[in-house]
Specification:
alpha/beta; 8 helices; 247 residues; globular; 7 strands; seven-stranded mixed beta sheet; Rossmann fold
Length: 247
């Protein structure tokens, strides 16, 4: 599939229904196996990528953190453990994913440090200038309106607050890119079809990654959304990247 830099046009199920509603339904469908498949399909490397983001986040010592598209809460939990005293709020549109996140937090005794809110990343139920830092791991490509979602993140950040975004990108290396595309296009959907009750979710993963505007293209959108000092750091040959920006 040719890279078109239009993630809003890629939807999990059909071209008629809005992307937001489809994404919500998709994650509700796969919530029960999301963690297992995530770690299996990435061979555990996704845990390293999240740790790298948390290491960058920790240098700023934020006291109030918002984890957007928190899913089953892995990044929120890591942030809470790594930054003592920090208050972490996780936001997600999928009730099914948040149910699992809350069980994880309860099991680890972190209820007084992490709170989860069901809500829309493009219309957040928070006042402006609330958080010191906003994080997102593999969530922005699922936004119905990418720029609007970024603008919302900037709105809820305090002045000089920072955003940290972990997202898939396209490897620059030709060999790595060939292996990457083969895996995402053929092997990943096959594994998802065998193990998940919603195989279209894994076909959507490949298509949404291909359509995502990575590297300089994404920095341009961050700038248009009002962020400054925007940078990216490539992870694992460019399989994914960590983007940072400041309000």
């Amino acid at each position: 599939m040719k890279k078109v830099n239009n993630p809003e046009g890629v939807k999990p199920y059909n071209a008629v229904e809005g992307k937001k509603q489809q994404v919500k339904r998709m994650f509700d469908n796969i919530a029960g196996k999301y963690d297992m498949l995530n770690h299996l399909l990435s061979m555990g490397i996704d845990k390293i990528w999240r740790r790298n983001l948390i290491s960058m986040l920790a240098t700023g010592k934020p006291s109030k953190i918002l984890d957007v598209a928190t899913g089953t809460g892995d990044l929120a939990i890591q942030a809470s453990k790594r930054i003592p005293g920090a208050s972490v709020t996780g936001l997600d549109i999928s009730a099914g994913m948040l149910d699992i996140a809350r069980k994880k937090v309860q099991k680890q005794g972190l209820e007084d440090k992490i709170d989860f809110v069901l809500g829309d990343s493009e219309d957040m139920p928070f006042s402006a200038n609330t958080f010191d830092a906003v994080t997102v791991a593999f969530g922005v490509r699922n936004f119905e309106n990418l720029k609007k979602g970024l603008e919302e993140m900037r709105r809820v950040l305090k002045p000089q607050g920072k955003v940290y975004i972990l997202e898939f990108s396209t490897p620059h290396n030709r060999l790595a890119g060939t292996v990457y595309n083969f895996y995402f296009r053929y092997l990943l959907p096959f594994i998802g079809k065998v193990t998940s009750k919603d195989p279209k979710a894994y076909k959507y993963l490949y298509e949404s990654v291909q359509a995502f505007p990575c590297y300089e293209d994404f920095l341009t959108i961050m700038k248009e959304a009002g962020f400054k000092s925007n940078k990216y750091k490539i992870q694992t040959l460019g399989i994914c990247s960590i983007y940072t920006g400041e309000k």
